[in-house]
Amino acid sequence: MKKILVAGKVQGIVLKSEKPINFLGTVDKKTGIISDKNHDLFEKSIKDTILVFPSGVGSSVGAYTIYSIKSNNTAPLAMICQKADLTVVTGCALTNIPLIIISDEEFSSIENGMKISLDTDSSNPIQYQ
């Protein structure tokens, strides 16, 4: 099951987290680096990645963080999640960052460092290379 919430076409390398992301408290708005020491992506940059994570958590103000990282050119190229939450959906819609929701099974098959092509107009929007 794939559900396209924000359309787009990009290619990039996967940065995957097994933990939800709180954009407001976890992502540095200027650098796009994960600043939470307890997060599995601590000190990694989400800039120009295909960010794969279970879901967003936290305040709806996190959508403005997504807007800020896009404005600062430190945003991911696209996001892939297991669960749609208001923060991530709103942030991606505001910034035209492609967003696709996938099944738990497909989430498990995606690994860090994989190269992925996304094309939401295609019958198979996620292509693994």
Could you explain the architecture of this structure?
- This protein has a single domain, classed as Glucose Oxidase, domain 1, CATH 3.50.30.
- The protein has 4 helices and 7 strands, in the order ββαβαβαβαββ.
- Strands 1-5-4-3-2-6-7 form a 7-stranded mixed beta sheet.
- Helix 2 links the parallel strand 3 and strand 4.
Short summary:
With about 130 residues, the protein is α/β, with parallel strands linked by helices. It is built from four helices and seven strands, in the order ββαβαβαβαββ. Helix content is about 25%, strand content about 25%.
SSE diagram, text form:
Blueprint (H helix, E strand, L loop, with lengths): L1 E5 L2 E8 L6 H4 L23 E4 L8 H10 L6 E4 L4 H10 L3 E4 L1 H6 L5 E5 L6 E3 L1
Parallel strand pairs: 2-3, 3-4, 4-5
Antiparallel strand pairs: 1-5, 2-6, 6-7
Helix pairs in contact: 2-3
